[in-house]
Amino acid sequence: MDAIRKACASLEEGYLPPVTFVVVQKRHHTRFFPFEHGNRNTTDRSGNILPGTVVDQKICHPMEFDFYLNSHAGIQGTSRPVHYHVLYDENNFSADEIQSLTNNLCYTYARCTKSVSVVPPAYYAHLLAFRARYYVEGSEWSDSGSGVGRSTVGANRETTSLPVIMENVKNVMFYC
């Protein structure tokens, strides 16, 4: 949280917006199926649960703020819901508010005219991290860990110097 506070303060002095921190988990083995598989009012074209389906009871943690959201229509096979876990919430969102916001955000992804499975800020972070590895100096990744631009810190931990972002792309989603 300190890094987020410092980043906000670097934008404008005294800028301290309330923060809600949510972990997004894509890879898990949880699947949901409609009760009436043959009923077209309760399934999408692929026979999956409808987009916007939220599960926040029974299988979720009894004391923590988590939920599963299937925000997208399945194209082929079984849709996989995403597990969202709210770790920190200064906005005091109700469960319905954060679930609705999360689902609505899934319709704002720049590359697609339909909803996507993962909330776009997490999707964009994944794309940026994936692309950033190509911008790191000496991005010759190997199993031996002897790439150029890497230095060893502490016990078997490596750090890599990130490149400076050019001014003409600092405020653009070039990774999108």
From TrEMBL:
Gene3D superfamilies, sorted: Ribonuclease H-like superfamily/Ribonuclease H (3.30.420.10)
Organism lineage string: Eukaryota, Viridiplantae, Streptophyta, Embryophyta, Tracheophyta
Limits of the Piwi domain: 1-137
Lineage top rank: taxon: Eukaryota
Gene Ontology molecular function: any one: nucleic acid binding
InterPro entries named in the record: Piwi (IPR003165), RNaseH-like_sf (IPR012337), RNaseH_sf (IPR036397)
A Pfam family the protein falls into: Piwi
Range of residues in the leader sequence: none
PROSITE patterns reported for this sequence: PIWI (PS50822)
Record-given protein name: Piwi domain-containing protein
